[in-house]
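Sample intake sheet
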Amino acid sequence: MPDQPARKPINFTIVPDEQQGEPRTYANFCSVAHTPFDFTLTFCEVMPLSERDVREAEQEHVIRAPVRTRVVVPVQFVPNLIAALQEQMRAFSETYSNVGWSKGPVH
């Protein structure tokens, strides 16, 4: 078999191809689970609780929230996702440090 020439690495940037009017999904809660092969991020929207909801939650120790989307990513993807989130959080903190947002829970 003849020797094949070595391939040169190609540098490129992936840019989302956003469609005009593409809907956004809002979520203010994320549950994370994993298997040996992938991570599942389940995004939910938790609405403010009524007095009735609070009483039920106190009894059942459960608050039900509608799933807005579920994203499954391979394990190899997770370190880059964490690094990207940390970088965005750093940039956000530098930009909005005077706004006074809290690192505590949303609810």
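Comment: Residues 78-95 form the longest helix (18 residues). The radius of gyration is 21 Å.
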